[in-house]
Amino acid sequence: MPRSPVPLWRGLAGGALALLAACADPAPSAAPVTTPPAATLEEDVSAALRRMATTLTSAPAFTLTFNTLREAPAGAAQSILLSGAGAVVAARPDRLYAAVGSDMGSYSLWYDGRAFTALNTQQNVYAVTPLSGGIETALKAVEARLGVTLPILPLLADDPYAMLTPAGTTGRFIGRSIIRDVVVDHFALNGPSGHWEIWLEAAPSALPLRVSFVEPGPERLRTILDFTAWNLRPRLPAGTFAFTPPRDAARADFLPRGEAQTRSNTP
């Protein structure tokens, strides 16, 4: 707001004040109030994500390895970092194998278009459940049943671009940097499912080299996936997606979502 004129002589009569006011320059008008432009999904972000999606969905099969850091609650106002490493083998439309070892345990997963199998390699216990559909359908079913979020899911989806950019998503370019001697472009996305950051090769392939996901909610816990190797033309041995129970492995049932915690608290 413009500053109001201050009288220089408070003892002057009202007529003199009026004369001074009439001779004074008019007070400047207030600057117009402008509304900042609404956040959008910037065109260069959209274009890079589309290139990435085309690269991933055009590969009939691929393998990848990754390291992961995941925040977990550890008491009042504190979180800790849990680390891990894993590998994924995928063959579209409905074949998947994954192995993960972390501070939270070690397990392997198989999906062959007919059944989903999970093996706890430390406890030597496995579970099998009938399941059909593509890789995305299977992983969504796993998320729903186990009550977990899989940050890698968008990269394995039928349409990675659509899953990363649902209605209401905004995104911007952060900058260019280097990951393991590879030049990458860093993007940030905000959407209904949470906050994403993704580092894509600054090349036509736009392969993702790193992903950060912050879950919605008050705790805002972060998971980082650091992709150490991609192979878009793998030679997969026969039986890659077939599960053979290890010796002396025990079979268990998959527990419905929420039931695992209830049973674990039952004597």
TrEMBL record:
Position of the signal peptide: 1-30
UniProt cross-references to PROSITE patterns, sorted A to Z: PROKAR_LIPOPROTEIN
Keyword list, A-Z: Signal
InterPro entries xref list: DUF2092 (IPR019207), LolA/LolB/LppX (IPR029046)
Keyword field contains Signal: yes
Keyword Signal: yes
Transmembrane regions: none
One Pfam assignment: DUF2092
Coiled coil location: none
Record protein name field: DUF2092 domain-containing protein
